[in-house]
Amino acid sequence: MGNYFSIIIGIIYLIGVFIIPKWRAKKLNQNWKFFELLWFSICFIVYVIYLEVQLHTYYFLIPSTFLLLFLFCYFKEKRRLINGLVFNLFLIVGMTYLGSLLVRTMNPLLIVLAGITGIVLLLLLLIGLYALLAFLYWNAIVVLRKEGHSLANLLTLLLAIGLTAFLIFNYYSARILPQWASLLFGILPFIMFYFSIVFYNFLTISIIYQFNQPKYTQDYIIVLGSGLIDGKTVPPLLGKRIEKAMQFYKAQSDATLNPPKILMSGGKGDDEHIAESIAMKQYAIGKGIPEEAILVETNSKNTLENMRFSKEIMEQDFGGTDFRAIFTTNNFHLFRAGLFAKMANLNADGIGARTAFYFLPNAFLREFIAIVMMHKRRHLIMCSLIALMMILLALAEFFLVTHR
After folding, report:
1. pLDDT tens digits, 126-164
2. What is the pTM of this model?
3. Domains of the chain, each with CATH number or no CATH
4. What one-character-per-residue DSSP string does 226-274 give?
């Protein structure tokens, strides 16, 4: 019976794998990767529940509870950093559960998945940090060559140099310093470990937030501005944001014959000849968007003001507050922009425009630093507690050594 069910669920899964791309090809939004991932997850969960039922146990309810907790938190408010932590807790509990299920069933599929996972984890332990260093140096060279030598473009290089210095220091400090001094200098790796967890949670929710699927019922699409070339020309990065909004505009128009208005948001910088939103409007008109379908917000200087001032314009144009809106920006900036929308009391989620892969590591580091600064008091408290704990351990070790 077990083998028959495994074959049946495998056939059903494969049928879905081939049907989903063809099904999505008939839709205005042809993205099929999210639905393939969702289909695999559903089939796998059904299979795992079947294995549990065969054992007359119901331990699957434990990871299911964490999954339901994540879904509740996420759909209640997508724009929260804690959602990344909750999802990663679900992953940890889920992996632990699957490990116990493997021991209890010795199921061939679980053995294969465990083997693949084990190989990946082993490689990460053996060469993970060194592979990361090589990637960071390579990425830094590419970014500096293609994007210039500004401080914002040096983040991956600075991180790579910092990690290299840390590895060298960590290697020699254990051989040179006494135990109590090693504990004192252990403050740095513990703080690094803390921020790596924070970064991983941020990256997790940033990736999940990319899967937004807004309905074609929007009244407005806000396009968030960025700098102009020579103070007057829309750069490629900003052009991607505008084109993403235009894509949604045309898709909703085809689906409902009721397109949303596009609200270009961006003021005039000190080194710019015109407001960013004016240049963005001209760009969209040049791509075929009717002028009457475009609104402009010309006063904002940052993303928070983008959201606040755009909200005021939409309320005035709509004649109320019950409008529906989304915003577009580059995918690396999407989640932080969502946080700013929340701060502005604007009920809007975002859709992200694609960004060149080489630009993403540097961009996500920049976003992470900005989010850390948004919650700097919380992180200062955590770092202080780590430092205090290590200082107390170092003092205890020092006095134990001197009194022996």
Report:
1. 777 888 899 999 999 998 888 877 777 889 999 999 999
2. 0.88
3. 2-120 (no CATH), 134-209+377-402 (no CATH), 220-355 (3.40.50.620)
4. ---BTTTB--HHHHHHHHHHHHHHHHHHHHHS-PPEEEEE----TT-SS
